[in-house]
Amino acid sequence: MNAFAKETLPISLEDEMRHSYLDYAMSVIVGRALPDARDGLKPVHRRVLYAMHEANNAWNRPYVKCARVVGDVMGKYHPHGDSAIYDTLVRLAQPWVMRHPLVAGQGNFGSPGNDPAAAMRYTECKMAPLAVEMVREIEQNTVDFRPNYDNREEEPVVLPARFPNLLVNGSDGIAVGMATKIPPHNLNEIADALRYLLDTPSATVQDLIERVPGPDFPTAGFILGREGIREAYRTGRGRCVMRADIDFEEGTGNRRDRLIVTAIPFQVSKGKLCEDIASLVRQKEIDGIADLRDESNRKGMRVVIELKKDANPDIVKNTLFKKTQLQSTFGINMVALVDGRPQQCNL
To answer: Which residues contact 192 (CB under 8 A, 6 or more apart)?
Structure first.
């Protein structure tokens, strides 16, 4: 031991575990899992957009291979696995994930049915028009910069973000000891509330609630009740009950009556939903369903549920709401980094 260290310090294992755990927790909270309240982005999202901006990969420029963007991000700003960076890039381009996508994708970027995107060597991307507003005027000393991981480049601490991305696109993530889940909102409604707040600095949360009726999910559907949403806007925690959009088509001739699902709750996998319904029918937990098929295409979602002749469509529909994710709850937990510290935020 003396050959390697000139001084030996006795350290309590309990203290070392405590300090190491806290260091790890703060690293995950600040560097990975929680969005910054100012631009609504986690570090990996921010680095993807900044790398695309640096490469002049704007909305009015030609598409470039996603592999090139991933390589720039990994080499300059984010020294982690390429698959994690590509997954982030794909999510930024998926319109059923982002209320307003920040990346324009070309090629196979997956589907709401949980189909994966094609490999990064096949797909192409560029910044969406709205993403340009996230980085506009960044060269004019609008934000602070810091050294990257190897001190060879500089990256922005936060993007200028000329629109409130945190509320517009929402965010979710799991850190150590805490999590965040912020729903997306309508850009026009949030902009109206912001204009009112600028004109009336003394405005209360209740004043803003009157101008923001609730979340606006990219997958459409219905929201049942607003009290849980108002509670979330007041305190930062609440719940939002979402329900699928189901139409009834009356059968003619030999054609059966049908329920047509045209929209499902946010973050619900269409593929797993169909599997769950089929499983419940096989187990005889749902009566009245004769056939189930997915007729969705690039024009929109269409899941057809054919009913038996003696089935009551209202009873079948209510049973589906009760036993499947055609009705689900979005637990709102609005936690974001404010001045570098995690904070529960109201509207």
So the answer is: 211
**249-266 exposure pattern, b = at least 16 Cβ within 10 A, e = fewer:** eeeeeeebbbbebebbbb
**Residue 120: count of CB within 10 angstroms of its CB:** 23
Distance of CA 221 to the CA centre of its chain: 17
Which residues are known catalytic residues? 122
How far, CA to CA in Å, does 172 sit from each of 63, 227, 275?
Answer: 28, 22, 26
Tens digit of each residue's pLDDT (9 = 90 or more) over 80-139: 889 999 999 999 999 999 999 999 999 999 998 888 999 999 999 999 999 999 999 999
Domains of the chain: 41-154 (3.90.199.10), 171-237 (no CATH), 245-329 (3.30.1360.40)
Is the Cβ–Cβ distance between 163 and 184 less than 8 Å?
A: no
Given a contact cutoff of 8 angstroms between Cβ atoms, the answer to whether 307 and 315 are in contact is no
